[in-house]
Design brief:
TAXI family TRAP transporter solute-binding subunit; ten-stranded mixed sheet; TRAP_TAXI; 352 residues; alpha/beta; D-Maltodextrin-Binding Protein, domain 2; signal
Amino acid sequence: MRVRFLFRRLALVAGLLGASLLPGHAQEPQINIMTGSPTGTYIQFGRDMQGLMSQCGKQMGVVESAGALENFLAVRQRRFTQFGIVQNDVLEYMQTFAGQDPVVARTIRGVRIAFPLYDEEVHILATRDIPDFSALGGKRVGIGNENSGTFLTSSLMLSLAGLKPSETRTLGPQEGLAALKAGEVDAFIYVAGAPASLYAEGEIDPAKFHLLPIRNETLRSVYTPKTLPANTYPFQTEPLDLVAVKAVLMTFEYDMRGNAYHRAACEAVSDLSSLILTRIDDLKANGHPKWKDVDLSAIPPGWDIGACVNRGIAPDYVANCTAPVPAASTGSDAESDANAAYRRSICEVMGC
């Protein structure tokens, strides 16, 4: 599959060039989170986490990116990049091929879960003559930037549904909207947590364009069925059936007993983990609306929670802050020790 070869190529380049491939230098913040496009939900979540760290007297950079594939590789390769937001189907895809491909296996080694986040809706904006997702065969479709989770999700969904567009174009969300308005594509796919500012602020004419319902039974069995409430966007006046994929905050398995870089990175991971857990009610009240949907117990199968995360959410851990933080508001049957420890800490704070 095309996405497998893309990921393998990216992984090989990252492995050969290391940190020089992905910028990260001393003049930048020494704590960073890889997010996505400026119109997406990832970057807004990143800014909310940046605010938490700022309350703790720590500077954290919010880095724009092409999306989930780039973010995953950056956590593995980019210096001073302790966090990246990734889609769960990207994780499942990599787990599937890790046993068959040593490059993929080497690339995912050491990458860990920090927190499961929210469901991201698959938005497909199209011309009015296209009634639904199943009518995309023979059409010109934007499928996201090559380094994005949207690209992988789009490719998988079209393949699973047996649809063959007449042309697929690798377009980011803003480029996709511009191409649609210019008549250069018939539809474009964008995976983002609703409400996504691209659609809320994009001046979309409801007489010409609409979001496509996704009712394909195969897709609704593989992904999470969702209903987008009416008036989520100004041009969308009726409820809409579609599918969604989970967004996950990823990190790396830093060694607190290792060198100075590992110790500092682990402390950053522990501090942000502690702040997210103890300030989750504040995030749900004042952050992006998708914080209300975050279920910290929904660990993706096949992946472990990072040791530095578990260190930070332990009941006796206190974030190493240089500024005061407001007082906090008070898987599988064979679960790993790391994930079991994570669940115990979550339950102590939030109840189970």
